[in-house]
């Protein structure tokens, strides 16, 4: 049974509802998959859900979709617990392919829309619209297994959109896409957000998360380590100094108050500044090694911060 099959048929609700994930816990024997995970995705917001493999992202999404039961906690959409009727209003894109490989693309998308309660004429219009927007309208007569992996990914997204969902939940939607396809898919997510739809997606492409998302949550070993706007999360990582001192030895900044050496590579050093750090003292120490070609205060990227949080 595919993920779409599990959703069943039913009415479609409008946008404007908040997706709330409230204190989810889940165990598999002695393994804690989720430990009190909480966050929300607001109407018109794109929320990036990041974490290493096995952190619990897919488990959280499956519970949100209602196809996996939590040991405790709850997921609500617009204040209503996720039941069968609510599940029918969710657009879900699984990381693994959930389509019938031998069924023609157009027929399959129409069928999936009808499963969600869309009448046939409206379903066909929705299929054409999203196929055109995602660049697969010329492949509607082909079977799914005749498509490239990238085009299968586009069709999978179309399957999540054809019933005009109240919320989008996407597991690694950008995996395997070329830069043009990433741009196309990004614009689709922005369009849905502009229409008031909460959009939740997981991704390992943190530069894309940083560029696309309003807020982000970092999940580590089943616990939500940090949640906030991309700017808040980055600023929470503290101040960085990038120093280019070509003659400096690797340990030149060791022992400076409030300073942690993050990286040093051929005279280029990245430092984290904590309490008690004095950038002028750092500059003096760098100049003591010889000429300083660069001295820049920066905010850590989401990728840099993620590495530190996960480590």
From TrEMBL:
What processes does the entry annotate via GO biological process terms? Answer: response to antibiotic
> Which stretches make up the ABC transporter domain?
19-246
The answer, when asked if Flavoprotein is one of the entry's keywords, is no
GO CC terms on record? Answer: plasma membrane
Going by the UniProt record, its keywords in alphabetical order are: Antibiotic resistance, ATP-binding, Nucleotide-binding, Transport
Pfam families named among the record's database cross-references: ABC_tran, DrrA1-3_C
The subcellular location is:
Cell membrane
Q: Which GO terms describe its molecular function?
A: ATP binding; ATP hydrolysis activity
Membrane topology, as annotated, equals:
Peripheral membrane protein
Q: So what family is this one in?
A: Belongs to the ABC transporter superfamily.
- What is this protein called in UniProt? ABC-2 type transport system ATP-binding protein
Annotated source species:
Pseudonocardia alni (Amycolata alni)
